[in-house]
């Protein structure tokens, strides 16, 4: 499978400032393993920096990491939908795929509507932190 990634950087008015295209060849199983490895790395980093996170949901996708972090100290959501922050790939930091990461409150767990394309809550894989990390 040939995977291509185009990243567009725009100003506040939508004008294109820069465009990067990256191509690499990966098999589907390699790509999925890479996405899962990145999701697990994000979980470990989140736990290291924020002890209030008590649960992690990963929504497997072929082209990006989709992660919801459930925390005990978050303010209530302002809508009924999960609203992730999106981050571009950072290959130099072993993060080759874009990431969508959302933080929600413990009492909102499995209650908010997921972003379009993320599937439903039953598609989520609850990631456990790795022992000794």
Keywords:
alpha+beta; globular; two-stranded antiparallel ribbon; five-stranded mixed sheet; 1 helix
Structure explained in plain terms:
- The chain has 133 residues and is α+β, with helices and mostly antiparallel strands.
- It has one helix and seven strands.
- The strands form two sheets. It has a five-stranded mixed beta sheet with strand order 5-6-4-3-7, with helices on one face.
- Strand 1 (2-10) and strand 2 form a beta hairpin.
- The chain is globular and about 35 Å long.
- Residues 1-5 and 22-29 have low confidence and may be disordered.
| Distance between the ends | 33 Å
Cα gyration radius (Å): 16 Å
Structural class: alpha+beta
Percent helix, as a range, is 10-25%
Number of helices: 1
Strand order in space, largest sheet: 5-6-4-3-7
Q: Give, in order, the helices and strands.
A: EEHEEEEE
Fraction of residues in β-strands: 25-35%
User: What is the count of β-strands?
Assistant: 7
Shape: globular
Q: Tell me about the largest β-sheet.
A: 5 strands, mixed
Query: Which runs of at least 5 residues are low in confidence (pLDDT < 50)?
Result: 1-5, 22-29
Average per-residue pLDDT, rounded, comes to 83
